[in-house]
Amino acid sequence: MNLVIEAPTPTTSTLHIPTTPPDYAAIKQRQQATWASGDYSVIGTTLQIVAESLAEAADVHAGTDVLDVAAGNGNATLAAARRFAKVTSTDYVPALLDKGRQRALAEGQQVQFEVADAEQLPFDTGSFDVVLSTFGAMFTPDHARCAHEMLRVLRPGGRIGLASWTPQGFIGRLFKTISAHVPPPAGLKSPVLWGTEPHIVELFGSRAAEIRSERRLFNFRYRSAAHWLQVFRDYYGPTHKAFAALDAEGQQGLERDIKMLLDELNTAGQASLVVPSEYLEVIITKG
């Protein structure tokens, strides 16, 4: 079902004001180390279909100036470039941008790559027609600052396209499982809030002419629960770092709980592993 939200102005009662502001600089340093660990591209390339869907929903077409924020290994970057848009791909982890650069080169796509913090984008106001982010912006420590920057660099009437995991979906539940073993930094908002309509309205509503959202499913397809766990433990930064932070007993407990979650959600029976994971696809039109 396609949900259209006529964006209201948030009231002070809807805003969360932490009593002690988190140390965002320290958190970012930890995040950069996390995403640089393993090899996210092994996971990221399997998610390409999400970016293709988002590019269609955002109506990316030839000649469009597109910015990919927290681009990772370049899924939304490539989706936009394949539609002959003029694409700038950004991330604050150079190793991730290198993977996107290699993919673009292999396809013969002309893309500009630039190391950039999503909370402090190095572009003039109103530089882009479309701003995209697939499972990237949601991980910024300061949600409001990231939303402000995405809106700032967007031209009036332009569109922001977001794909974010929901709290109740598989990845949302995975993060909750990991947090029970390795607690996140105090005061930090959960990234999966980006997968909820009220939070999107809170972040973007005051400057949006329209917000459209649709809940979609991405299917993780692996040989087995053990295979998924091996791949994510080796290559996916958050899982890789979580296991590294635990002793042998703690690692066994985390592995047990993740396998239980995978077995609960697996729709393929004994044949293989297919785990549907819900995400929220959002298109925001700037007023």
How confident overall, as mean pLDDT?
A: 91
Contiguous helical run count: 11
Morphology call: globular
Q: How much helicity do the residues have?
A: 40-55%
Q: Which oligomerization state do the chains in this entry correspond to?
A: single chain
List keywords for this structure.
287 residues; alpha/beta; 11 helices; eight-stranded mixed beta sheet; single chain; 23% strand; disordered N terminus; 40% helix
Question: What can you see in these coordinates?
Answer:
The protein has 287 residues and is an alpha/beta fold. It contains eleven helices and eight strands. It has helices at residues 24-36, 40-44, 48-57, 75-81, 94-107, 143-152, 170-181, 197-204, 225-235, 237-244, 248-265; strands at residues 2-5, 65-68, 86-91, 111-115, 128-134, 154-165, 208-222, 273-286. An eight-stranded mixed beta sheet has the order 1-7-8-6-5-2-3-4, sandwiched between helices. Helix 3 (48-57) crosses helix 4 and helix 9 (225-235) crosses helix 10 (237-244). The longest helix is centred in the C-terminal third of the chain and has 18 residues, at 248-265. It is globular and about 55 Å long. The two termini are 24 Å apart.
